[in-house]
Amino acid sequence: MFRSLTSQLAQAGGANQADAKKSIAPSLRGDIYNTIDQARSWLAGGAGSLGQAGDGVAYKTILATVQKHFPDTKLGLELVGSAENEAAVIVGGVTNMILEMSKWEGMAGGMAARTWADGLVEAHARIGDAKRKDQIARGIAKGVNQNTDVTLLTQEFAAKIQIISCLKTVSTRIFGSGSPEARQGEALWSAKLL
């Protein structure tokens, strides 16, 4: 009886361990940088891009890459065609990919976070239409601040500080220092440090 109970417990424990990732996905680093480039162009839109946020179609290639690593990332039908909501899902997905990499390679995750934060700010600055620029700004803030899974963040202290400082400055750089969005992003990410 005792032997049966211990074997059942061992099997149950083994099933949970099998579900947990044991190493970084080999394609994650390359996928992150490719997706950053695609998302930057997609967010900015305009001439020479393959589409733009809110067109209801162009997000699919970026989302497919995110779904390779996070299959549960989805964009509901009610969100398709909304620049803000499409941007929020994509930005959150790419940020999650970066945080996942940081679990395995802390400083590489920090460098990717810096590249991503700079890319988001640059893409936002390149948008000409004021209405679309505001929608994308709100989508970026929502993606970074609300759609990001912070449980993926590294426990390595130096890398954690670097990633948090990069992500909490995104709203400040887009909305301006002292804006409600910047204060919210600052407070949210500062709380993650604890």
The number of domains: 1
| First-residue to last-residue Cα separation | 46 Å
H-E string:
HHHHHHHH
The averaged pLDDT comes out at: 83
Please identify the structural class as seen in this structure: mainly alpha
Overall body shape: globular
The profile of the biggest β sheet is: none
Using DSSP, what is the number of strands? 0
Q: pLDDT under 50 segments (min length 5)? A: 1-19
**Rg, Cα atoms, Å:** 19 Å
Estimated share of beta-strand residues: under 5%
Question: Can you give me a brief rundown of this structure?
Answer:
The chain is mainly alpha-helical.
Topology (elements, then pairings):
Layout: H1 2-19, H2 28-44, H3 59-69, H4 83-104, H5 106-126, H6 130-145, H7 157-175, H8 180-193
What can you see in these coordinates?
The protein is mainly α. It has one domain (27-193). It is 71% helix and 0% strand. The protein contains eight helices and no strands. Helix 2 packs antiparallel against helix 3 (59-69), helix 2 (28-44) packs parallel to helix 5 (106-126) and helix 5 (106-126) runs parallel beside helix 7. It starts with a helix and ends with a helix. Mean pLDDT is 83; it is low at 1-19.
Descriptive key words:
194 residues; mainly alpha; globular
